[in-house]
């Protein structure tokens, strides 16, 4: 009996561990604060620890805790309860010397139209990146010796604030627009905005009576219009090295491609269109996925019926569905297909490169309809983790569990601002607490089949196309184009295979769709078999604008203006 009591007492006593006590310099602390407090470690000083967290093998360490109502003059602790990535708990950190930093990712309070109140990080012009978000506060990096078995408390002080980001200036060719969305403002209970970067066609000022088609490029948050440069490459540019493509001087290649695009854009025979990059960063991600969502609100309607008509009004767009088309890669690839399917009368062509999962039987490497666990296939004895990221030879860089563990360390309730959390925020119904309902338990990986069924009916694009083909087939025939590498980094080609099988079987009418694969091509192959991926990924605009211009005659209504904008 005494032995049993001894054991109970022994295990009831918290194990010794090093902890951290965080205070905020009084010059920064203006009132009660909510957010995610992140404690960061790096074993090198190549850059600040906040810039060294990722899914790659070189990632450093982060621990996170939620804070609410952090009052002036008080401190917060990061202790053994903090959840971390890649090491899950502070007590398991290897002893050694580290560069240490702490950062508070600030949350705001939103009173939603649905009646719920949520706390989320509002985008502040950076495209939802916690490590550069203006207004976030952080500490200087200090070098410390860490020994988890030592029972002491380390004090750190937050004394810095990330400054605002300067807005890009208008130029002769590039203009910027920002509007308050009535639809989104009503949903979020506070002013919400949409923006766009617009590349005006060559001769725009000289041809004042011409109205133009709109080429809508979807993708991650574009601070400015990317890949367009009116000056020759910088002769003094210090060459960088692309780890992904194993190329030295890739920054010069990018500048040369941008300058070459400018010469094509303003040269003879290039189709004259308004090229538009949408800005729709939101409290969950750098991009809304351009659809109506229970958790993000009516971004699809806001973009289609508020923003796009306003751009056409200000910059002489034709303003008809036949004269708009969409294209993009990855997130933008999914969006290009989704808005074409969900708004078939508003767009006249979809060019989707390396799209995010278009069939949830292949939600990267899991099947949300049949699998019980997101992280491990069923087995009587084995526990083999599902891969989440690979290179073009198939070497695994990260597992699904590791990717989601990083997201969980960065933010609970789908608030990491990263990939699996935004899929959840877009595709899921809203839970009772106002946050997205989990498709799977972020810690254990257990899949919720009721949420999977909701995903299928509302956002599984392969399912929706097949289900609704009798109603929308005549509006979609010839408009769907999908391109993906057969060694896509995130296994996105798997969903495209099943989508292709379905598209081939459509009838009354036949789909007349295009699906193409790049041999051994990684993310984000876009259909160009003549160039390596590191070049073709820089040519989305010139590739797809020319492709659409060559096809539009077969899909435009009788009497449509197909000539005035081809000067």
TrEMBL record:
<feature type="signal peptide">
    <location>
        <begin position="1"/>
        <end position="17"/>
    </location>
</feature>
<dbReference type="InterPro" id="IPR029058">
    <property type="entry name" value="AB_hydrolase_fold"/>
</dbReference>
<protein>
    <recommendedName>
        <fullName>Esterase</fullName>
    </recommendedName>
</protein>
<keyword id="KW-0732">Signal</keyword>
<dbReference type="InterPro" id="IPR050583">
    <property type="entry name" value="Mycobacterial_A85_antigen"/>
</dbReference>
